[in-house]
Amino acid sequence: MSPLTTAAKPTHRKALVIIAIIAITLTLGGGILFSASNLSSSVINTIDGSTYQAVHLDDGETYFGKITSMEDNYVNITDVFYFLDETKKTLVKRGDESLVLNHAHVLATENLEDGNAVLQAILKYKSNKN
Asked: What's the CATH class of domain 49-129?
């Protein structure tokens, strides 16, 4: 066997390993992107447009409002409220502008049920405002 033949085999194997790694990475990456887009559409289908939602973020903050869309990696929330501090006793209206959050920072969303204390506080605030 010539030195050229033995040197070519390891190089060929390295190339195959690199190609295999790239193929696996692309496959997994595509699956993650596909899952993220499906997650957005599956989450938006669970949103009850007749009530408010809690949106929990990865920094510990929670916003309450109406999710109007989850597109292009962003979550749009209108009529937004949040707690003033960690005691969670003072609920504050954020203003009239909508809040746009990067979907990557959203840990969970949930519809607020009729008996929820936060929903009751929001509804009381809104009835006093009118």
From this structure: mainly beta
- Write out the H or E segment, with its range, that includes residue 17: helix 3-45
Distances (CA, A) of 107 to 21, 22, 42, 60, 82: 30, 30, 14, 9, 16
- Over residues 22-69, the pLDDT tens digits come to 655 544 444 444 444 444 445 556 788 889 999 999 999 999 999 998
Q: What count of residues does the chain have?
A: 130
- In the chain, what are the domain boundaries? 1-45, 49-129
Residue 93's DSSP bridge partners are 81
Three-state secondary structure call for residue 77:
strand
Segment 80-95, tens digit of pLDDT: 999 998 888 889 999 8
